[in-house]
TrEMBL record:
Keywords: Membrane, Transmembrane, Transmembrane helix. Residues 43-140, 222-317 form the Nucleoside transporter/FeoB GTPase Gate domain. This is Sporulation integral membrane protein YlbJ. The keyword Zinc does not apply. The lineage of its organism: Bacteria, Bacillati, Bacillota, Bacilli, Bacillales. The chain crosses the membrane at residues 48-71, 78-101, 121-142, 149-168, 214-235, 247-271, 291-316, 328-346, 382-402. The keyword DNA-binding does not apply. InterPro entries: Gate_dom, Spore_IM_YlbJ.
Amino acid sequence: MISPKLKTLILASFVTLMAGALISFPQESFDASIRGLEMWWEVVFPSLLPFFIVSEMLIGFGVVNFIGVLLEPIMRPLFRVPGVGGFVWAMGMASGFPAGAKLTARLRQEKQLTAIEAERLVSFTNSSNPLFIFGAVAVGFFHNPKIGIVLALAHYFGNICVGLLMRFHGAPKQNKGERSSEKNSKLSFKNAFYALHHTRLNDKRPLGKLLGDAVMSSIQTLLMIGGFIILFSVLNRLLTLVHITDILGYFISFLLSVLSLPSELSVPLISGLFEITLGSQMTSETTNVDLAHKVVITSFILAFCGFSVQAQVASILSETDIRFKPFFIARIFHGFFASCFAYILWEPFYVHFQSNESVSKAVPVMNFIEKSSTNLLQLWNAMAKIGPLITLLALLVYVLLLTRKIVKNE
């Protein structure tokens, strides 16, 4: 354990060095800040806002409780979490980081999860969404939609493995608050509807108040996410400028050589440990490296999700009694699981479709994948065009609601 005085010294030194680097490289810091802001302004905010608002509404109206009762016979035996975990898992995959953490924290505040159940749930419900994997990474960076299917399968299979592994998390004495799976093993629409109706009646807020609270809570979370994206975009750039990334790259290159991976991927991997978008892009642009090795490293970067996303999750979880450590350990496991799956799935899902012997069988499947990836890329580009308008309108609504709330309190 690090002593409190040493920890204080380390943190103070790090912040001081970062401030010095900001002063030494003002233009580069500004450019990196703009890059992070553009990512948040154009894509992250408009893509996550609808999911966050709808999720808050679903929780308020009791729909999540309804889904939880129905999915209890599935989620409890597999992952040792309540049925509401199925809703969090689905929303996390559809909307991407850090929706799973946001919803898990919200359900913990609603007392629908114990602390241990929440730690299990948050460990496997945070993932990259298909829009980012296919649209940005596969087509945007690698210019190859076929890679998207390998990355997606490896990513989500790895997530399932993490969920199955984390079901063993928690000492027996910490599991006292869990409900018995045997008592909830029967599918009952009647009980599910009763849970929905009971939840709606207990929430005394009118529709307008519920919607306003959902918008306020969602935008506050997204503002926090934007701050972390900009901060880590600048930090990643500063580490490169002061050659810390190169120094760390020497150690990572040794580890990669042990795993029979090219050392040229060490710097992209370091960048990906901090920010997944930049790391994935740098990995795809690395020359003289086999494509399969690039996919394995990219799969690890997507699963680890970068310190930027992990800092967002840590900030969200800090509002509850959910510990961050299990989530961090799960990300390491997810990275290794996803990398192994990418290596295993590379030949059957990429090389096989590329071979001349299977052209007749692969064409329909590949046409579907390429068409889907193209549509996702078009959606990604459309987000970049209309995203700022959505963000601006949402922030305007937030200011109006906040002003109204302040006036009422006075």
